[in-house]
Design goal:
three-stranded antiparallel β-sheet
């Protein structure tokens, strides 16, 4: 009976984490560049059940085991494509397909994001909304009057005296063999891990990387209806584990009363 208690507790803990992850998904349903998280479960070890004399005499040789509950195997980000929203801002860009924008953190390490809400800092460098510099040393001249970001990552600027915009920089995207292995750093940023593998780089539209769309932002990939229905299922699973724990407690109470 103690196995039932511990198994129910493991189910409560696992489904609590799933509820937390799904609540965070719903909270970010309108957050640009947000990628929903999924919690993966795995069953725990199994304990062999001793056979009785009657069982031993039977011809049934099937193993007799009882499971000891469940545990969270991993939480992973789902990098499916989100809807695009037009902003008309020339420095906003969405990635159509796979790939990340590489940015440099304050400690010098690299992070990766799908959020293409960019701007220029005081020196003309291309940075994120939080001021993180985009890799590639991309600088836009202060006198530029028009900025065009092509689908292949070429950045064109119209300078005084020029009739047509000229290319000033090339933006590259980063990709991963296993993007689901990236760790979330918050603010739409992800960090490289052993599971994700090393980043590879290329022009948008090449080596499996998506193309860019200027004047658009990629919105959250959370499907509100799907997430809400899954939340109801997770809530019912939590309630069932709580009911199993209560039933095990009642049986133990009944066993204890037999001594009276």
């Amino acid at each position: 009976m103690l196995d039932a208690i511990y198994a129910s507790i493991s189910g409560l803990q696992a489904h609590q984490l799933r509820l937390d992850a799904m609540s965070n998904n719903l909270a970010n349903v309108n957050t640009p560049g947000f990628k929903k998280a999924r919690v993966n479960f795995a069953d725990l070890m199994y304990r062999p059940v001793e056979s009785t004399a009657v069982d031993a005499a039977s011809a049934d040789e099937k193993p007799r085991q009882v499971g000891l509950g469940t545990a969270v195997a991993s939480t992973e980000a789902i990098f499916s494509q989100g809807d695009l929203r037009q902003t008309q801002r020339p420095l906003d860009m969405a990635i159509l397909g796979q790939g990340f924008i590489e940015v440099q953190l304050s400690d010098g390490s690299m992070a990766y994001t799908r959020l293409g809400a960019l701007r220029l800092n005081e020196t003309g460098e291309l940075v994120t909304a939080e001021g993180l510099r985009v890799s590639g040393d991309i600088r836009v001249p202060a006198e530029a009057t028009q900025l065009v970001i092509e689908q292949d990552g070429r950045i064109l600027a119209k300078l005084p005296g020029d009739e047509d915009p000229e290319e000033i920089a090339q933006l590259e995207l980063a990709g991963f063999v296993n993007a689901a292995g990236l760790k979330s750093l918050g603010s739409g940023l992800y960090g490289m891990t052993d599971q994700s593998g090393e980043a590879f780089y290329g022009k948008p539209g090449e080596v499996g990387l998506g193309k860019l769309r200027q004047g658009f932002l990629e919105m959250s990939n959370v499907d509100f209806v799907e997430e809400l229905s899954d939340l109801v299922v997770a809530q019912r699973a939590y309630q069932l584990n709580a009911r199993a724990l209560q039933a095990a407690d009642e049986v133990l109470a009944e066993i204890n009363s037999l001594r009276r």
